[in-house]
Design brief:
The chain is mainly α and 180 residues long. It has helices at 12-23, 32-53, 60-71, 80-86, 91-103, 125-146, 151-169, 171-174, and strands spanning 77-78, 107-111, 119-123. The chain is built from 8 helices and 3 strands. Helix 2 (32-53) crosses helix 6 (125-146) and helix 4 crosses helix 5 (91-103).
Length: 180
């Protein structure tokens, strides 16, 4: 049965909220609904996206690294610091991941002409070819996953999630951090 404007399908969060309502009727647990659904969707989406990338022998983090280099534009080169801050990982994690990607021949470390003390990370021809093929299938997979929602609903969801993301990315401005 497909959901309509008059009939909502129940999801795993509905049951959790029902249990909290039964056990703690004094609490308004409604905030758990959207946050729990976002977290559950993120976890499930990651699984579906990983499965789609497996045909290219890529994990999601490997795809993310190659895609970050690819969208930086020719010569597809970034400093390790820019790369790890964009990918939101630690420098130690980035070092380990770079070694693995180098061993696969997907990236290379090249001298930084602006700073002789540092190296840059650059897509190899093999890495460029792989990410160009993978990103096409990745977008097809994302489109398929989102096809359960009509375009107007998807546009509204995107706008509302953007509002939330802006607030979460700027917690100091909006006093979102918990009081000490």
């Amino acid at each position: 049965m497909t959901p309509t404007a008059h009939h909502k399908q129940f999801d795993s969060l509905d049951l959790i909220l029902k249990h909290w309502e039964r056990e703690r009727p004094d609490l308004d647990a409604r905030p758990m609904g959207p946050i729990g659904r976002i977290k559950r969707c993120a976890a499930l989406l990651e699984q579906y996206l990983e499965a789609g990338l497996s045909q290219f022998g890529l994990s999601y983090w490997e795809f993310d690294m190659l895609a970050t280099l690819r969208r930086s534009g020719a010569p597809y080169c970034l400093t390790p610091t820019t790369l790890f801050s964009t990918l939101m990982v630690t420098s130690g994690t980035m070092t380990h991941r770079l070694k693995r990607m180098e061993q696969r021949g997907l990236v290379a470390r090249v001298p930084n002409e602006q700073d002789a003390r540092s190296m840059l990370v650059q897509l190899t021809d093999k890495g460029l070819n792989l990410i160009d093929r993978a990103v096409e299938k990745h977008i097809e997979n994302e489109r398929r996953l989102l096809s359960v929602m009509p375009p107007n609903m998807l546009a509204e969801l995107n706008a509302r999630l953007s509002t939330l993301l802006v607030a979460l990315e700027n917690p100091g401005e909006l006093s979102l951090l918990p009081a000490a």
